[in-house]
Design a protein that fits this description.
Helix content is 31%, strand content 20%. Strands 1, 4, 7 and 8 form a 4-stranded mixed β-sheet that branches. Strands 3-2-5-6 form a 4-stranded antiparallel β-sheet. A two-stranded antiparallel sheet has the order 9-10. It is an alpha+beta fold and 230 residues long. Strand 5 and strand 6 form a beta hairpin. It is elongated. The chain starts with 20 loop residues before the first helix and ends with a helix.
């Protein structure tokens, strides 16, 4: 194989001792595709010999033939970009969705906010998304002699919450109070420079509530008098 010769007549040759795996024999649904797409990691199959099951006595020689190359391959894991995804206070953001622009397959930061991507030297743009935070796009460079350290800070999205209760209403305006009377609604308007129609509306609510309360009180008094008269 390392001489560029095929393993058997009529089979594909190994130019420079290497071969494109998909061109050699295609495989659908294998662990390599699964790990790359869903796990964001590389799984590599290394064909060391034309013999699939070499004798045990030949294994030490295979190891020595490939030892330095395997160590060099492990060192390639440091190539590219790596860092953390954090918020404005430096707290790690887990599972942020990330992608290198113009590449189909994305990846995510770890449960501790870590991320890494093996890349050849060049200029890149990384895109980062996370629910509740503003998305970011950052340009960076990868060099040959050392990894690029890039910590990414995401800003939280500011959301205006609706006024749902009396306490929030007071905090927001300091002008309005609401009271549920059961028979009517009383609104106290403390603003200055209020619109006349707005004041008329408030007064109508007050009058309506007062009339209803007065009627109920008279009815209750009459009923009580009848009971005492018996």
């Amino acid at each position: 194989m390392h001489q560029g010769l095929p393993c058997k007549p009529g089979a594909a040759a190994f130019q420079n001792g290497t071969v494109n795996g998909a061109a050699w024999y295609p495989l659908v649904g294998g662990a390599q595709d699964y790990n790359y797409i869903w796990g964001g990691c590389l799984e590599i199959t290394i064909e060391m010999s034309c013999c699939k099951y070499p004798p045990a006595a030949e294994l030490p020689a295979h190891w020595e033939d490939h030892r330095l190359a395997l160590l060099q391959l492990l060192g390639e894991a440091r190539r590219g970009v790596r860092g953390m995804t954090v918020d404005g206070e430096g707290v790690p953001i887990p599972l942020a969705e990330m992608r290198i622009r113009n590449r189909d397959v994305g990846f995510k930061s770890s449960s501790r906010g870590e991320y890494w991507r093996i890349l050849l030297p060049g200029d890149y743009i990384i895109e980062v998304y996370k629910g509740g935070y503003e998305p970011r796009e950052i340009a960076f460079k990868v060099v040959d002699d050392k990894p690029t350290i890039l910590n990414i800070v995401l800003k939280k999205v500011k959301v205006e919450l609706p006024v749902n209760n009396r306490l929030e209403a007071k905090k927001r305006t300091g002008e309005h109070t609401r009271q549920n009377w059961g028979t009517g609604i009383k609104l106290e308007q403390k603003n200055t420079g209020e619109h006349p129609r707005q004041r008329e509306s408030v007064e109508s609510f007050e009058e309506d509530g007062a009339e209803r309360q007065s009627g109920l009180l008279m009815k209750f008094t009459k009923t009580l008098a009848n009971l005492l008269g018996r």
